[in-house]
Design a protein that fits this description.
This protein has a two-stranded antiparallel ribbon. The longest helix has 29 residues. Helix content is about 40%, strand content about 0%. The chain has 12 helices and 2 strands, in the order αααααααααβαβαα. The protein is mainly α and about 325 residues long. Helix 2 packs across helix 7 and helix 11 packs across helix 12. The protein has 2 domains: about 130 residues, Orthogonal Bundle (Cytochrome Bc1 Complex, Chain D, domain 2); about 130 residues, Orthogonal Bundle (Cytochrome Bc1 Complex, Chain D, domain 2), CATH 1.10.760.10.
Length: about 325
């Protein structure tokens, strides 16, 4: 009887110890500089599906040559792999295309932080010559001629196709582009979600100071910072894209200042920086050490950080549907 009680007590104490170890591990991750993404997006499924369809639609541009997915390719990390994209006017854009994945978690939109949210950004994309060179009313007129699409709007919104509903559907879709990663599972307490080397890379990411700018739910995207914060970065011009936030504020203090990019899916979104001038993640890390941190690091340390950055890739990216082309237009 006594031996049975001892065995039972031993099992109970072991279970309790295991429980407390799990709690302690979970608590240890609460104060991390990076916060996990939600496991799934929240939104109206019908509106998200409609927004996904609109995201692919070439009729958003005046000449039916560009859709949102032209530059924001969901199978390429939400960007297009180019240093600089070409707008509907045939001219190069000013900045490298940022990813749309997890973009709803950014505190401002675009490299210069011009827009506070998706609705303002959509207005910019629709109307500016370097984007779609269109107007909401003309675009809505073209879309409304599509009987199947009009019927879908009636089903989803109980009303005819209107610019406000187009904005809402696209906004719902953009907010659904959330990409939980292995690292999010690690933050939630799954110690085996990343390898020992990747974990060492994360520890170095923190200890070297990378997390001072790249933190929060989007591993960045929540503050402004000057390019060349610790050492002047050669090659930055006094005009054009390199002026950064100065373009919006006209304050000298904002020269060469940009919204810090989020690092989720960063391994999928080369080339890097506001002008797409850096072709590899290894190069980007090297330059950040030199000019943003003002520190030196061993090759091993930099390689470990790159390994950690790969854990931020979403485990399941949203598949892209074929573009919806109007009659007579080949996508």
């Amino acid at each position: 009887m006594l031996s049975t009680l001892r065995r039972s007590l031993g099992r109970a104490l072991a279970a309790l110890a295991s429980c407390w170890a799990g709690v302690a591990a979970a608590q240890a991750l609460v104060n991390e500089p990076i916060r996990p993404l939600p496991m799934k997006a929240v939104g109206d499924p019908a509106r998200i599906a409609l927004g996904a369809r609109l995201f692919q639609d070439l009729r958003f541009s005046r000449d039916s040559t560009h859709s949102c997915a032209t530059c924001h390719q969901l199978r390429r990390g939400g960007a297009d792999g180019k240093a600089i994209s070409t707008g509907a006017d045939g001219k190069p854009a000013l900045f490298n295309t940022p990813t749309v994945y997890n973009s709803s978690f950014n505190f401002r939109q675009t490299w210069t932080g011009r827009y506070s949210g998706a609705e303002q950004l959509l207005d910019h994309v629709i109307t500016r010559p370097k984007a779609f060179a269109d107007s909401w009313d003309l675009m809505a007129e073209r879309l409304a001629k599509d009987e199947a699409l009009s019927a879908q709007f009636m089903e989803v919104y109980g009303d005819a196709l209107r610019p406000a509903y187009v904005r809402d559907a696209l906004d719902q879709f953009l907010r659904s582009l959330v990409t939980p990663s292995r690292f999010d599972r690690y933050l939630r307490g799954d110690a085996g979600a990343i390898t020992a080397e990747e974990e060492r890379g994360y520890l170095r990411f923190k200890s070297f100071g990378c997390a001072a700018c790249h933190q929060g739910i989007n591993v960045g995207g929540n503050l402004f910072q000057k390019m060349g914060a610790m050492r002047e970065m050669p090659g930055l011009e006094t005009s054009g894209a390199d002026l950064g936030r100065y373009q919006e504020t006209k304050r000298n203090v904002d020269r060469h200042v940009f919204r810090v990019p989020g690092l989720r899916n960063v391994a999928l979104t080369a080339p890097y920086f506001h002008d797409g001038s850096v072709s590899t993640l290894d190069q980007a890390v090297e330059l950040m050490f030199k000019y943003q941190l003002g520190r030196t690091a061993s090759q091993q340390d930099k390689e470990l950080i790159v390994r950690f950055l790969h854990t931020l890739s979403g485990e399941k990216l949203v598949p892209a549907a074929p573009p919806a082309a109007p009659p007579g237009v080949t996508p």
